[in-house]
Amino acid sequence: MMIGPHDIQKRVLIVAEIGNNHEGDVALAKDMIHAAAQAGADAVKFQTIVPERFVRASQVERMVQLQRFALSYEEFTQLKTVADETGVLFLSTPFDLESVAFLNGLVPAFKIASGDNTFYPLLQAIAQTGKPAILSTGLADLEQVRSSMRRFELEGGAGALAILHCVTSYPTLPEQANLSAIRTLKDAFPHNSVGYSDHTMGIRAAVASVALGARIIEKHFTIDKQFSDFHDHQLSADPEELTEMVLHIRELETMLGTGEKVAQEGEENNRIGGRRSIVSKRSLRAGETVTLEDLTWMRPGDGMPPGDEHLLLGKRLTAPLQVGEPFSLEIVE
């Protein structure tokens, strides 16, 4: 699956989820893009929220916070420019239909939040752009994931659809991370890329998810865990943690290899020393007939290998052998 120029089957896509951790400060948002890029992230992601289209007016406290954090469409366009200049992909999650239309000119792929994996009009609007989409699956069981995917496909979704395991709990407790669900999703949807949107504290779950097959990692990102009392900062990775996470994931990708079970280059020097040869268990005279009781197996493996015993049994020796000397076909007839 391609996200912009990034082939996620060849290299895990690491997304720094800035979300609303800029708290409405576009200058801070730009600084965070630079910090994420410096940490090694492949992409930055925001949330395009128009508060009046997202929550009811009766949710006064929530509305006030969202209005304080909201960035304008023009400011998102500026952030896209900064991301391009910095060399990271720009992504943002739309939370209303109009924002889908706006972001279509900015993003290489759409992200669908867990809370909206049942917001079918949004899925329809995104599907009709023809772009790839990334669907978070928090709050959903396997049947709901199937339903959301079917709706995306039925609405004309021509772009590839990736599925992220996610637990919509902030922070997610270790015993509720349920990372094995990544394998469940891979088995249930073998033709879709699977990833992980991490809400646990620290970076261990994100790194572990790659070993389970995650090809997209989304981790909340903050410039400072103590920036404010907004809860996302505390569960987010700061620049030092994000740098460490990226390094661990890249190292793990190298360790995972191709999956083809073949002897590795570094093993070749140990092949002879680590294998065994068929050798004489006792001193044998020329003319004796070789029996199984005459054989034993010792290192190094520079002689006849185990499994070739049948080539020796019942044959007559043409030369003597001392204890531990290797057999060869040249001395039997």
TrEMBL record:
Signal sequence region: none
Sample GO molecular function, one term: N-acylneuraminate-9-phosphate synthase activity
Q: AFP-like domain spans which residues?
A: 277-333
**Gene Ontology BP, a term:** carbohydrate biosynthetic process
| Positions in coiled-coil regions | none
| Higher taxonomy | Bacteria, Candidatus Uhriibacteriota
Species this protein is from:
Candidatus Uhrbacteria bacterium RIFCSPLOWO2_01_FULL_53_9
Q: What is this protein called?
A: AFP-like domain-containing protein
Q: What InterPro entries does the record point to?
A: AFP_Neu5c_C_sf, Aldolase_TIM, PseI-like, PseI/NeuA/B-like_N, SAF, SAF_AFP_Neu5Ac, SAF_PseI/NeuA/NeuB
PROSITE patterns associated with the record = AFP_LIKE (PS50844)
Q: Which CDD domains match?
A: SAF_NeuB_like
